[in-house]
Design a protein that fits this description.
An eleven-stranded mixed β-sheet has the order 1-2-3-4-15-14-13-5-6-7-12. Helix 12 runs antiparallel to helix 25. By secondary structure, the chain is α+β, with helices and mostly antiparallel strands. The longest helix has 28 residues.
C-alpha cells in the first residue's frame, strides 16, 4: 500500500516494467514457460485469477501476485494483492491506437475518477506526476570528430613508414545514436495546471526536473577492433605460404639442371663475400627474381612502394651506406622501466621497440589494407629471405636485444634472437680470423667469451695468447670439426690426464688459452699464479629446445645408469671449462679449479701447524667428496685443451639453419598465432594511450581487467580461440566507450568552454552519462548542460522544418543570443522541441472504496503514450471489511 503512494519509485531509469507501472518493490510473476502456452482466452484468465485469489487467501501472503496473459511481446499482466481487510486489483489496458480523449491530462483524469467511483463530494485532490520524453536523432555532421583513415596516404611521402608502426583507433560511425531528454513534473495537483486538446501549460523549458540518457549504437564499427579481429581470423586459415603464392618461391635457381653430384659442393666453397652496402633493392632482389619465375610482377600481392616502405621501417639500417654494428635495442632508457614497456613480460609478446613487435603491426596493417592473406604471405616470404641474407652476409638483425633468447617473449622473438646470436658468433670468428692473419689483436673474442671479452682489452700480457691460433676456425672446421682421439691426444701432448700420474709432464706443458691472472690466487702444489682461462659460452636455448632437452632427459628414467647418463649430458659445459682450465694452468688439481669455479665448495680453516703458527688449511666440501662425484669424474676425463680447439658447445651454423628452416615452414596461420600476443599488446597500449587523453575512471578499471585476463590466457602455449575472442571483444568495447566519450564531449562543446567552472560541470555530466543509465541535469533547462541540450534540439528542429542550411549551421553564440532568456521566448518555446516521443502520467489519490464508510485506501493509475502504443495500468484498492 505504501508503494502505491510513494513517489520515490516514479519513473525509475532501469527496472522491471511492473516496477515502473505500479511502483512496487516486491512482487511475484507467474508466466507461461513457452510462447505456445500463452493465456489467450478470457475464461482461462479468469480461472487463473480466481486460483491466485484463493491461494493468497489461504496462505495469508501479502506480496502482490501477477499472471502474464496474452503474447509475451504485449507485456500484459493482471494481478491481486490481499492484506488484512484490503484487496488491491491490478488491471491493465493495452491498445495500438490511442483514443483522442486520452492523449492529454484532462481525459485521463476523467477515466481515473470514473474507475474509482468515489461516492464523496467533493472528490479528494488527485496528485499528478508527469514525464515527457523527447528524442534527438538528427545529430549534425560536425558533432562527430572521427575522420576515416586515409588509405591512399598510408604509403605517401608525408606519412611514410611511420604509419606502419601505429594502430588506428576510433569508431567509423557515431557511437551515440540518440539522446533522450526526460522533462518531469514530479508534484502537481489537479487544478493548478491545464492540459487538454486545445491548450497545455506543460512547457519542457519550465519543467523543474530534466534528466538525460543516451542510446548507444549497436556494435559500432571500430577501427582497432576490426584490425585485431581480422588478424585473428588469419589464425584459422589452413593454407601454407606456397599454396597462397603459387609454387615454392624458395627453390634454388637452376634447379632444373642441377645434378646429384653437386649435392655436397657447397661444403667446399669459400665463404660468401659480404656485401657492405645494404639497401632495400639488395634485400628484395633475390625474392623478386624468384617470384618473377612463376608469376608476373603485376600479380604480386604487395607493390614495390608498400614493400619497400615496410622493409625500411623494419630494417632502418638498410637506408644507410654502411650497416649498423649495434643492433640491440637500448633498454637502459627510462621507458624500459615503465609499466607499459614491461607489459610484454605479462603478455609473453615482445618489447614495443623490437623487430618482432614492428613485424606484427606491419602484418596487421597489410592484412587489413594491402592484400589480406596473400599480402601477409608475401611479406613473410620477404622477411625470411632477408633473414637468410643477413645470416649469409654477417649482418646483425636490428631491433633485437643482445644476449641469449629472452624466454619471457614469444617463441618467434626467441628464434630471431637465436639467429642473431648465431650471426654474432659467426661474425666474431670471421673477424678474429682476419685479425690473426694481419697480425693485429682485437677484442673480437667478445662474441665467443662473453663478459671475459670486455676484460680482455685491459690485459696486454695475454692478448698474444688469445688471438694466436684463430686460423683453426676455418669455415670447414666450424661445421665439421673432428676432435683428436684419446690416443692421438696422449701422443701429441705426451701427457696423461689422470690426477695421479704424469704430473711432471703436465707441469712442463706450454700454457694456452689464458685470459688474465686471478688476483693473488696461486696453484696449491707448485705456487704458480692461477690464470682464468678463455672458455666457451654455454649454448643459448629457446623454450622449444629447452622443452625437447627436458623430454630427452626425462626419458632416461630413474635407474642408476639413466641418472649417470643424464649427469654426463648436463655436464658438457663443465667439462669444457675444466679442459680450458687445465690448458691455461698446467699442473693444476681439482682443488684449484673449484677455488675459481665454485668457491663455496672449497672450505678453508685456520689451524696451528707443528711450529705453532696459525696457517690456512683448505679442503673440498662434503658434496665434492661423495664417491662417483660428477665433478671428480669430469676432472679425470678432461684433457688440457684450450677453448679454441675444443668441440663447440654451440654450433651456430647448425642452429642458424634450424631457425631459418623453422621460419620458412611457418604458415600464415602459425605466424599469426605467434604474433597475436604482440598485436594484443599493441592494442592495449593504444587503448591506454587514448584513454589517457580522456581520463575515464571506468575505462581504467576495464583496462586493468583486460591486462589481468590477457596475462593469464597468453602465458599458455596454445590459448583457446574462445578466450582470445573474449580479449579482443573487451578491447573493442573499451574502444567504443572511449569513442562515445569523445562523441559526447564534441556534442557538448567541452573543448570550447572558456569558463573553467562550466567546463568541469560539463565533464562531470558527460562522465556520468557514460557510466549511469540516466543522469539528472543540474539546473534543468537553465543550467550549462540544459542550455546546450536545448540548442541541440533547436538545431535539429530547424533541419527538419526548414530547408535553409545556413540557418541550421548558425554559430552557437548567435543562436543563444537569438533565443534570449526562457521568460522572453516562452510563448514560442514549444516549437523548439519536437512532439514528445513518450508521455507518462501517474495519478494518485486516497479515497474510501467501495462505500462512503469504507477505509480510505490508495488508488493509482499509470499511463504511457507513444506513437504506436498506449497503456493504462491501474491499481485500485477496496475495503473487504466495510463494503
Amino acid at each position: 500500500m505504501q508503494d502505491l503512494l510513494c513517489m520515490n519509485n516514479d519513473f525509475p531509469p532501469r527496472a522491471h516494467c511492473l516496477v515502473r507501472w505500479y511502483g512496487l518493490r516486491e512482487f511475484v510473476v507467474i508466466a507461461p514457460a513457452a510462447n505456445s502456452d500463452a493465456v489467450l482466452s478470457e475464461s482461462k484468465c479468469n480461472l487463473l485469477l480466481s486460483s491466485v485469489s484463493i491461494a493468497l487467501g489461504n496462505t495469508g501472503c501479502q506480496v502482490p501476485l501477477f499472471v502474464q496473459i496474452h503474447h509475451k511481446w504485449r507485456r500484459m499482466y493482471v494481478g491481486e494483492c490481499q492484506g488484512p481487510g484490503v484487496r488491491t486489483d491490478f488491471e491493465m489496458v493495452h491498445l495500438r491506437k490511442v483514443p483522442n480523449q486520452y492523449t492529454h491530462l484532462s481525459g485521463l483524469l476523467d477515466i481515473f475518477k470514473s474507475k474509482i467511483g468515489c461516492p464523496l463530494t467533493p472528490l479528494p485532490p488527485v496528485s499528478i506526476a508527469i514525464r515527457f520524453t523527447y528524442v534527438l536523432q538528427d545529430w549534425q555532421q560536425y558533432f562527430w570528430p572521427q575522420q576515416p583513415p586515409d588509405i591512399d596516404a598510408l604509403v605517401g611521402g608525408e606519412v611514410g613508414g611511420l604509419e606502419f608502426g601505429k594502430l588506428p583507433f576510433g569508431a567509423c560511425e557515431d557511437p551515440i545514436s540518440e539522446l533522450h531528454l526526460a522533462t518531469t513534473w514530479p508534484h502537481l495537483t489537479e487544478g493548478i495546471i491545464v492540459d487538454n486538446d486545445v491548450y497545455s501549460d506543460l512547457d519542457p523549458i519550465q519543467a523543474p526536473h530534466w534528466s538525460v540518457r543516451v542510446r548507444k549504437a549497436d556494435n559500432p564499427q571500430c577501427l582497432l577492433g576490426d584490425f585485431v579481429t581480422e588478424f585473428f581470423k588469419v589464425c584459422r586459415r589452413k593454407e601454407s605460404t606456397d599454396e597462397i603464392l603459387g609454387r615454392s618461391t624458395f627453390e634454388e635457381e637452376g634447379r632444373e639442371i642441377a645434378d646429384i653430384t653437386h649435392a655436397l659442393s657447397k661444403l667446399t666453397e669459400p665463404a660468401p663475400v659480404p656485401i657492405h652496402k645494404l639497401s632495400v633493392s639488395n634485400m628484395v632482389h633475390t625474392a623478386k627474381k624468384k617470384i618473377r619465375k612463376h608469376r608476373g610482377i603485376e600479380e604480386s600481392p604487395l607493390n614495390n612502394d608498400v614493400l619497400n616502405t615496410i622493409l625500411l621501417f623494419l630494417f632502418p639500417d638498410a637506408a644507410s651506406e654502411k650497416p649498423l654494428d649495434g643492433t640491440s635495442t637500448d633498454n637502459s632508457n627510462s621507458s624500459s622501466e615503465s609499466e607499459d614497456y614491461n607489459l610484454y613480460n605479462q603478455f609473453k609478446s615482445a618489447p614495443s621497440d623490437s623487430l618482432t613487435y614492428k613485424l606484427a603491426l606491419c602484418l596487421c596493417m597489410i592484412n587489413f589494407y594491402h592484400g589480406g592473406l596473400k599480402g601477409v604471405a608475401h611479406l613473410w616470404q620477404e622477411f625470411v629471405l632477408e633473414m637468410r641474407f643477413r645470416w649469409e652476409n654477417d649482418f646483425l638483425i636490428p631491433g633485437l636485444a643482445s644476449g641469449p633468447p629472452d624466454l619471457r617473449c614469444c617463441l618467434l622473438h626467441q628464434k630471431l634472437q637465436m639467429l642473431n646470436c648465431c650471426i654474432e658468433r659467426k661474425k666474431a670468428r670471421d673477424e678474429g680470423r682476419k685479425t690473426s692473419t694481419s697480425g693485429q689483436v682485437t677484442d673480437a673474442h667478445s662474441g665467443e667469451a662473453g663478459e671475459a671479452g670486455d676484460r680482455l682489452k685491459d690485459t696486454d700480457k695475454e692478448k698474444g695468447e688469445v688471438g694466436k691460433s684463430w686460423d683453426s676456425w676455418s669455415d670447414s672446421e666450424e661445421e665439421f670439426f673432428e676432435c683428436l682421439s684419446d690416443t692421438e691426444e696422449l701422443k701429441g701432448n705426451g701427457q696423461e690426464s689422470g690426477r695421479k700420474g704424469g704430473l711432471k709432464e703436465m707441469a712442463n706443458l706450454k700454457p694456452e688459452g689464458r685470459l688474465y691472472q686471478h688476483g693473488k690466487l696461486t696453484l696449491l702444489h707448485n705456487g704458480e699464479p692461477l690464470y682464468i682461462p678463455v672458455t666457451q659460452e654455454p649454448a643459448p636455448m629457446t623454450e622449444d629446445l629447452l622443452e625437447e632437452q627436458s623430454e630427452v632427459l626425462a626419458k632416461l628414467g630413474t635407474s642408476a645408469e639413466g641418472a649417470h647418463l643424464r649427469a654426463r649430458m648436463q655436464s658438457a659445459c663443465l667439462l669444457s671449462d675444466m679442459e680450458s682450465f687445465k690448458a691455461a694452468n698446467p699442473g693444476c688439481f681439482l682443488e684449484d679449479f673449484v677455488r675459481w669455479y665454485s668457491p663455496r665448495d672449497y672450505i678453508e680453516e685456520e689451524v696451528i701447524d707443528e711450529k705453532g703458527n696459525m696457517v690456512l688449511k683448505g679442503e673440498l666440501s662434503a658434496r665434492m667428496k661423495i664417491p662417483s662425484n660428477m665433478w671428480v669424474e669430469a676432472w679425470e676425463t678432461a684433457k688440457p685443451v684450450p677453448a679454441r680447439r675444443q668441440r663447440r658447445l654451440f654450433d651456430d651454423t647448425r642452429e642458424a639453419e634450424k631457425v631459418l628452416h623453422y621460419l620458412a615452414v611457418q604458415k600464415p596461420a602459425d605466424l599469426a598465432r605467434h604474433l597475436l600476443p604482440c598485436v594484443i599488446h599493441a592494442a592495449v597500449l593504444k587503448v591506454k594511450e587514448e584513454e589517457s587523453l580522456e581520463n575515464i575512471s571506468s575505462v581504467k578499471k576495464i583496462i586493468k581487467q583486460i591486462i589481468s585476463h590477457s596475462s593469464k590466457v597468453l602465458h599458455f602455449p596454445n590459448p583457446e580461440d574462445k578466450k582470445l575472442e573474449e580479449i579482443i571483444h573487451q578491447i573493442t568495447n573499451v574502444e567504443a566507450l572511449i569513442a562515445r566519450a569523445r562523441s559526447l564531449k564534441a556534442k557538448f562543446g567541452i573543448d570550447k568552454c572558456e569558463q573553467e567552472e562550466e567546463k568541469e560541470d560539463l565533464e562531470r555530466f558527460v562522465s556520468c552519462l557514460l557510466e549511469q543509465p540516466e543522469v539528472l541535469v543540474v539546473g534543468a533547462g537553465r543550467g550549462h548542460a540544459g542550455r546546450i541540450i536545448q540548442k541541440l534540439f533547436v538545431n535539429a528542429q530547424r533541419l527538419t522544418e526548414s530547408s535553409d542550411e545556413a540557418a541550421a549551421m548558425a554559430p552557437p553564440e548567435e543562436e543563444l543570443k537569438r533565443m534570449g532568456s526562457p521568460e522572453e521566448r516562452r510563448p514560442n518555446s514549444v516549437s523548439d522541441f519536437p512532439p514528445p516521443a513518450g508521455r507518462e502520467l501517474i495519478l494518485r489519490t486516497t479515497v474510501p472504496r467501495p462505500a462512503p464508510y469504507s477505509r480510505a485506501l490508495p488508488q493509482r493509475m499509470y499511463s504511457v503514450l507513444t506513437k504506436e502504443d498506449f497503456r493504462l495500468a491501474g491499481a485500485f484498492s477496496s475495503d473487504t471489511s466495510f463494503f
